[in-house]
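User: Okay, second chain of the day. Same drill as before: sequence in, structure tokens out.
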Amino acid sequence: MKAMALALCATMLCFNAMADGSAGIQVTGRGTTEVEPDMARFTFEIVRQGNDAVALKREVDAATARVVALAEKHGVAKASITAAAVQVRPEYRYSDGRSILEGVHVSRTVRIELEDLTHYGAITNGVIAAGVNQIQGVELDVKDRSALERAALQAAVDRALDEARFIAGRLGMSVGRAIEVSVIDSGGPVVPYPARMAMSKEADNFRPGTLSVERAVAVRFELISQAPAAAPES
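Assistant: Same drill. Structure tokens below.
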């Protein structure tokens, strides 16, 4: 995982009176971490249409086997490959109020979790040759998401404390203990690719870009009045 870049957003501020009558301040700190993704989740669909359901299912099963073999060849573990059950759906057209059987639609969805993006192009190009009709979606992510979220949370806490100290200092006061803390979740670092994306050229020029996660905290601090400086002796 490449080094994470932290971006900090502005805070929301409000003053309030504590239960014991002392002053308090509430701040909302936001932190963002950015990192290059190191894994991808693919959803492929194999579709065949015709009149012979049995023959079409054989084609779909054969294509599925080729996709699974391709994924394993590029280091994808069996546990990271999911092949859904085959779906067989008759297709009708309507004429003069009657439904007429036109054929059969046979499909199967295959999901692959790739943990080495150097194989991205080989997978996306190879599945087409193996018989995949559509890429339903690609999600980029990071294997260690918890570290990414923790870094964003740390940045949010630091931002909240910095803002509280700044405001308090401008008012001639200092920040006391934290009275209340709320963590605001902002979702995970997932970037979806458009469904049914064009394959060969886009895969060969694949650039993962960066993912970002934002976390926020709302913290209520006690404000402490600073003792006035002692007057110099005359």
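Confidence is low (pLDDT under 50) at residues 1-13, 189-201.

User: Thanks, on to the next one.
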